[in-house]
UniProtKB/TrEMBL annotation:
The keyword Glycosyltransferase does not apply. It comes from Gordonibacter urolithinfaciens. Residues 28-47 bind DNA. Keywords: DNA-binding. GO terms for molecular function: DNA-binding transcription factor activity; transcription cis-regulatory region binding. It comes from the Bacteria. Transmembrane segments: none annotated. Residues 5-65 form the HTH tetR-type domain. This is TetR family transcriptional regulator. Gene3D superfamilies: Tetracycline Repressor, domain 2.
Length: 217
């Protein structure tokens, strides 16, 4: 028996691919319908407008990110609870966590297309520009600044400016993630993964207090 088609899911997936390649503004409902293989009226049965599709994609992205973070093993809970976990995490394990997130943003199809969609459209659509800044500038920097401030205060990190620590940590990773879009083969992509790991290790060795850099006994 042929499985019943999930047309709504097909519309979301096709829309994301089109938005990532041509841009949100340049893609119409007719193009989305054609990509799915349905009539335009059928798209409107599931989504009232293109903005509704975008809103659904953003919700899906947030849901998938939470699931990916848990699967990778990122510490959870309050800031204090996460600080305690990070403070006793060996640098090599931190590199594993960093690699997991790097691979998620560069190898997971949905996450990669979502990131590319915002990158393509950030200069043309104010709303998508704001989303780009939220996902890839403002939210990660704000979170890391809070985390590093707590790690400094707890004694897990050497005394330093948390804002500058966040910039030092995140900017190279974001550059490497963007570079992955232009990697021509598996070897080139793995080289970028290796650079990301080395960056995380170097950052931890430079800033973590000596006992915590080695991890627990």
């Amino acid at each position: 028996m042929t499985p019943r088609r999930n047309t709504k899911e097909d519309i979301l997936q096709a829309s994301l691919r089109l938005f990532a390649r041509a841009g949100f503004e340049a893609t119409g409902m007719r193009e989305i319908a054609a990509a799915v293989g349905i009539q335009p009226a059928s798209v409107y049965k599931h989504f009232a407008c293109k903005q509704a599709i975008l809103d659904a994609l953003v919700r899906r992205m947030d849901e998938r990110y939470e699931l990916a973070s848990a699967a990778i093993g990122l510490p959870e809970g309050s800031v204090d609870e996460q600080v305690r976990d990070y403070a006793v995490t060996p640098v090599a394990q931190m590199a594993d966590l960093g690699e997991g997130m790097f691979r998620y943003w560069t190898e997971d199809e949905f996450a990669t297309l979502f990131r590319q969609m915002l990158t393509v459209e950030q200069y043309r659509t104010p709303e998508l520009g704001a989303l780009y800044r939220r996902y890839f500038i403002e939210a990660p920097l704000a979170w890391q600044e809070t985390l590093f401030a707590s790690m400094v205060e707890s004694g897990a990190f050497l005394r330093d400016d948390p804002k500058m620590l966040a910039l030092e940590f995140f900017a190279p990773l974001m550059m490497l993630i963007q570079a992955a879009d232009g990697a021509t083969d598996a070897a080139a992509r793995e080289h970028l993964v290796d650079l990301a790991r080395r960056h995380v290790i170097r950052f931890g060795e430079r800033h973590a207090c000596a006992p915590n850099a080695e991890g627990p006994e």
